[in-house]
Amino acid sequence: MKYIRKSFFLFWLIAVMLFGTVSASAASAKPETPVLSGTAAGNRVTLNWNKVKKASGYQIFLYYKAYGKYKCVERIKNRNITSFTLTGSEDKLYTYSPSSKALEIKTAPGKPVITRIRVREESGTLIKWKKIKTAEGYQIFRSESEDRGYKRINIVSGNTTFSYADTGAVSGKTYYYRIRAYVRNQGNVVYSELSDPAEAVMRKTIMIGDSRTENDNITWICEVGMGYKWLRDTALKTLQEQMKGNEDIFVWLGVNDVYNISNYISLLNEEIPKWKAQGADAYIVAVGQVTKDPYVTNEEIEDFNARMKKEVAGAKYADLYSYLKKQGYKTTDGTHYDNETTWKIYRYLMSFVS
Predict the structure, then answer these.
(1) Dihedral-angle region of residue 86 (phi above 0 means left; psi in -120 to 50 means alpha; beta otherwise)
(2) Can you say how many angstroms the Cα of residue 80 is from the centroid of all Cα atoms in its chain?
(3) CA distance 281 to 278
(4) In this predicted model, what pLDDT tens digit does every residue of 217-255 receive, in sequence order?
(5) Which of 257-261, 293-297, 299-303, 322-326 has the least mean pLDDT?
(6) Nearest-5° angle of CA 168, CA 172, CA 177?
(7) The whole model's pTM is what?
(8) In this structure, which of 28, 37, 224, 255 has its CB flanked by the most CB atoms within 10 Å?
C-alpha cells in the first residue's frame, strides 16, 4: 500500500495512467493495455487490473493539475501483482485512466457536522448539518442512547438539502442523532464516518416584556408597566436563573419608555452575546402600534423600532409593527390588544422558532 502525503492531494488529481513494462528481451513487443477497475473505502483507493501478457511489471502515474505532468508513484516489478492501494484524503474525486476509457473513483466524503437540532412539540425535531461538497446524499440515524443502538430513519438524496424534520420522535423521550454522507462508485456506495452524536433537547421560549406580552403557552418574564430599569434590575436576573442553554429569548419592551432607547441598545448588546454563548437564540420584537395611548405615539414607536433593528447586534429581528400594519389589529384600551390580535402575534412570533 502506498501512502501519498496529504499535501499532494491539495491539488486536484486528474488521472492515473497504468502502463505495462516489458523485459529487455521482449522490448519489441508492446504489452496490451490493462483494463482498470477500482474501489474506495474511507480515504483509500484500491486499483485493480488484469494480468497483462508479456509484461514484466507495471508503473503507476498520477497526473497533478498544478504541475501539469505525470509523476510515477509506484513501480511494481512483480508481473503477478494486479492491485495497488493509495491512501490520501477523504472528500476527493480521482480519475484513473490508462489509454482506454477513464475510470472515476470518489473517496469517502468528509465527516458530517451537525450544526443545529431544534425540538418543538408541535413540529417535531429539526436536524441541520453542514454541506459536504462531494456528497451525493446523507443518511440520518437516531438512538435513545448516545453511544449505541443507532438506527437509520431517513435518507436525504442529492446535495441540496441539509436538514431533516423527524416527526416520528415521541414527546418526552431523549434522542440522539448522527449523520453519514455517501457517494457512489460503479454501483458501490462509499460512506463517510458518522458524525458526532448530537442530543435533541426540547427548546423553551421565553418572552421578556410588559403587560402586552403575557401568554400561558410560553414561559414569560413580564410585568405591567415595566421597561428598561425593570429589564436591567429584575428580568435579567430571573432569566439567568431559568436558562439552561436551550432557549429562544424574545425581548418585547419599549412601549412604556421609548426614551430609553440608547439604554436598551447598550444593555442588550452586552447581554445577547452571553445568551448565545450558553446556546440560546435572541429575538428583538418590534413594538406594536397603539391607538389612543396618552404617553407614546406611533411615530415615536417607529423611531424606537428603527434604532433597535439597526443597532442591536447578534439578534434576529421580528418586525411585528409591519406585520400588524399588514394584518390589522385592535386594542381594548388604546394600548393592549384584543384576544384575536394577541393570537395573531403569538402565531407570528412562534413562526420564527417552529
Answers:
(1) beta
(2) 48
(3) 9
(4) 468 888 888 999 999 999 999 999 988 877 889 999 999
(5) 293-297
(6) 55
(7) 0.57
(8) 255
